[in-house]
Design goal:
The protein has 172 residues and is mainly α. Helix content is 81%, strand content 0%. The chain is built from six helices and no strands. Helix 3 packs parallel to helix 5. The radius of gyration is 20 Å and the shape is elongated.
């Protein structure tokens, strides 16, 4: 997927960018910037995927309230908070390369690792969606949802830990 986004960004270059790209040293810098932009676009996409799950989670809370299952609804409130925090962390994470004059430089291998990391977070959104499917079935059948809600919280905590490892990739 990195190649796809990077290629789209490179293909959108105009004549000026092509000309400037011939300046010695600039091409490598520009390529890093394009990879950084691809990472940013992927993370925004990942955040949108988690946003969709947050909307589902909010609907489930309303449904539990209507059913009078306030215990499960309160547990889901914790899940909502954890998911919102994860979304915010994904949206505001470092792009991995901040420009020519910044103190911390990240090479292309690290950028590739960050991109793979973000793809893994996208897979986490799919896993979360599957857990919400299971929880939805439980709620639709008016069964107590506390156990499934606690399982969801555990999954969100795992996603937070996984996302926390992203910063370590940058600092290595």
């Amino acid at each position: 997927m990195l190649g796809d986004l990077t290629e789209k960004i490179q293909a959108s270059q105009g004549k000026f960018e092509e000309l400037v790209g011939k300046i010695p040293g600039y091409a490598g810098y520009k390529q890093k910037e394009q990879r950084r932009e691809a990472d940013k676009l992927l993370r925004l996409h990942v955040a949108r995927q988690y946003d969709e799950q947050l909307e589902r989670l909010n609907r489930l809370q309303y449904q539990l309230t209507d059913q009078g299952d306030l215990t499960s609804m309160m547990v889901l409130e914790r899940a909502v908070s954890k998911l919102q925090l994860l979304i915010d962390r994904i949206r505001t994470a470092s792009y991995g390369y901040a420009g020519v004059f910044d103190a911390l430089k990240v090479d292309e291998d690290v950028l590739d690792k960050l991109y793979e990391f973000d793809q893994g977070m996208l897979a986490g959104a799919d896993t979360l969606a599957a857990s919400l499917d299971e929880l939805t079935d439980i709620v639709n059948n008016a069964h107590p949802a506390t156990d499934a809600a606690n399982k969801l919280i555990g999954e969100l905590e795992r996603l937070h830990r996984t996302f926390g490892e992203r910063q370590e990739v940058i600092l290595r």
